[in-house]
Design a protein that fits this description.
It holds the Pfam family adh_short_C2. Belongs to the short-chain dehydrogenases/reductases (SDR) family. It comes from Pseudonocardia charpentierae. The chain is an alpha/beta fold and about 260 residues long. Helix content is about 40%, strand content about 15%. The protein has 7 helices and 7 strands; from the N terminus they run E-H-E-H-E-H-E-H-E-H-E-H-H-E. Strand 1, helix 1 and strand 2 (about 35-40) form a beta-alpha-beta unit. Helix 1 (about 20-30) crosses helix 7 and helix 4 packs parallel to helix 5. The longest helix is centred in the middle third of the chain and has 30 residues, at about 115-140. It starts with 10 loop residues before the first strand and ends in an 11-residue tail after the last strand. The mean pLDDT is about 95.
Length: about 260
C-alpha cells in the first residue's frame, strides 16, 4: 500500500464526528496530518471522542483536535463550529457533512410531516448551511474540499426509509450544483454508503446480519473505515480533478440491481 496523501497544514470540520462514520473520518484525516474539529449533539460523548482521537490518530497532539458541541440543524451551532475551527486552526480547508437523521420509517403516505421536515432540514439544509458558512469564513478566498455523506438510499428506492432516501437524493443533486457553482477553487463530492455497521444503522441489520450481508457481492456489511478511506482520498490532492461526483461505497450492492 502506498503512502497516504498528506493533509498536513489543513484544517477540517467533520459534523456528526463523535461516533460511527464521522469519527472514522476524523481519525483518517488526523492520520493524514490535518487538524480536525468534530461536532455532535451529546457533549460528553463528543468530548470523550475528541480525547481518544487526540491520543490515537493525532499522536498525542491535543492541539490538532477540537470538539464543538451542537446540533447540525441549529444555525447558531453551525456558525459556532465554523468560527471555532477558523479561530483554533487558522483556516477551514476541508468540510465533511456527515451529520444525519432518519426519524421516518414506513409508507410516505402515512408519514409524520414534521419527521419528514426534520429529515430534510438536517440532511440537506444543514449541509448547505455549513457550506455557506465555510465559504464565507475561508474557502471562498482560499479554496478547499467538501464531502457530503449521501447514501445508496438516495440512488435507489427503499420502500421503508423513503424520506431519508429522498433527502439523500436531494443532497446528491446539491453536491452537483455546488461543484459547478464553487469550482475551480472548491471541490464538492459525495459518498454513498450502503449499510455500515454503526449505531445509526443498527435497526437495518440487528439479528439478521448474515442475511443482510448475503445480498452484497463482497459478502459483508461495511465498516466506518471503509467509508473514511474514501473520504480521505476525495479531500486530498490525489483527487484534484474530481468534483461533482457521488461515489458508491456499497460492497457491490447496487450492482445486483437492488438494495437487498
Amino acid at each position: 500500500m502506498g503512502e497516504l496523501t498528506s493533509l498536513a497544514g489543513r484544517a477540517a470540520l467533520v459534523t456528526g464526528g463523535s461516533r460511527g462514520i464521522g469519527r472514522a473520518v476524523a481519525a483518517e484525516l488526523l492520520t493524514r496530518g490535518a487538524a480536525v474539529t468534530i461536532t455532535g449533539r451529546k457533549r460528553e460523548e463528543l468530548t470523550a471522542a475528541a480525547a481518544e482521537l487526540a491520543d490515537g490518530p493525532a499522536g498525542g497532539d491535543t492541539s490538532r483536535v477540537l470538539a464543538v458541541a451542537g446540533n447540525a440543524g441549529d444555525p447558531a451551532a453551525r456558525a459556532d463550529a465554523v468560527d471555532a475551527t477558523v479561530a483554533a486552526f487558522g483556516g477551514l480547508a476541508i468540510l465533511v457533512n456527515n451529520a444525519g437523521v432518519n426519524p421516518q420509517f414506513g409508507p410516505l403516505v402515512d408519514a409524520d410531516l414534521d419527521a419528514v421536515r426534520k429529515t430534510f432540514d438536517v440532511n440537506v439544509v444543514a449541509a448547505l448551511g455549513f457550506v455557506q458558512l465555510a465559504h464565507r469564513a475561508w474557502m471562498g478566498a482560499h479554496g478547499g474540499a467538501v464531502v457530503n455523506m449521501a447514501s445508496v438510499a438516495g440512488l435507489r428506492s427503499t420502500g421503508d426509509i423513503g424520506a431519508y432516501g429522498a433527502a439523500k437524493a436531494a443532497l446528491i443533486r446539491l453536491t452537483e450544483e455546488l461543484a459547478w457553482q464553487l469550482g475551480p477553487g472548491i471541490r464538492v463530492n459525495a459518498v454513498a454508503p450502503a449499510v455500515v455497521r454503526t449505531r445509526f444503522s443498527t435497526a437495518l441489520y440487528t439479528g439478521r446480519e448474515e442475511q443482510v450481508a448475503a445480498a452484497y457481492p463482497l459478502g459483508r456489511l461495511g465498516t466506518p473505515e471503509d467509508v473514511a478511506g474514501l473520504v480521505g482520498f476525495l479531500v486530498s490532492d490525489a483527487a484534484a480533478w474530481i468534483t461533482g461526483e457521488t461515489v458508491r461505497v456499497d460492497g457491490g450492492l447496487l450492482a445486483t440491481g437492488g438494495l437487498g
